[in-house]
Amino acid sequence: MEIETELTTKKESPKLLGMFTSPGLQFERIKQNPKIWVSLIIISIIYAVGMTLMALSMDAETLGGSGLPEEQEEIFLVVTKVIFAITGIFAPIITIVISSAIHLIIAKIANSAVSFKQLFSMNTYITIIAAVGLIINMSVRFVIGGDPQINITSLAGLLNQDKVSVLSFIEVFGIWGVILTALGLHKTAQFSKGLAWTIAIAFFLIGIGFGLVGTLFQGAAKL
């Protein structure tokens, strides 16, 4: 009994920085000892800073408010920047909840014993990659200028494109996230490698689709 108690207390918690250096180990730890709140708060703060930098890098024309009178345009910019910061806090949480719920449904179909808490923890730790990518890209855009909707680390950014396209969504941190999602689903949720990679790639492609649709709506709003 004492040995079992000692082994239980020695369960190591996953570490956010470990997702960059030893993701496989972190996923094993998440399976045994899923943690959520501290990492989720850190990620939400990083996202809020990143989204604020994005907003500060945009002008009225980029945000679709260039047709307003000068005074209204200024108010529009302030309100929009506040909304961007607030969105940064809640967007990752909502994304993680939805992703975890879908993964759980697939897990039930695949007869995996993984719990929602384990999946939520897994997706939270994976999100640190996107959060760091957001901070890096928006910090660079804030300094050098250019359209903050086009990441420096994307193919569009590398090719110096000035319009959002499919290439805008193919970028280093996005691909990194796909790899970690596949690894996490295999290690933590015990999905087969084929199923894990299929789900990870499908989520990536759906994300690109939503991004392109959002860009179309934004373009239409400017007309």
Descriptive account of the structure:
- By secondary structure, the chain is an all-alpha fold.
- The protein is built from ten helices and no strands.
- The protein has helices at 2-9, 18-21, 23-32, 37-56, 60-63, 70-109, 116-144, 155-158, 172-187, 193-222.
- Helix 4 runs parallel beside helix 7.
Compact summary:
Helices cover about 75% and strands about 0% of the residues. It has helices at about 1-10, 20, 25-30, 35-55, 60-65, 70-110, 115-145, 155-160, 170-185, 195-220. Helix 3 packs across helix 9 and helix 6 (about 70-110) runs antiparallel to helix 7.
**Could you report the average pLDDT, rounded to the nearest whole number?**
89
Radius of gyration: 20 Å
Secondary structural class: mainly alpha
**Strand element count:** 0
Helical residue percent band: over 70%
Helix-strand string: HHHHHHHHHH
| Count, helices | 10
Terminal-residue CA separation: 71 Å
**Which percent range describes the beta-strand content?**
under 5%
Oligomer: single chain
Q: How would a textbook summarize the main sheet?
A: none
Unreliable sequence segments: 1-9
Give the overall form.
elongated
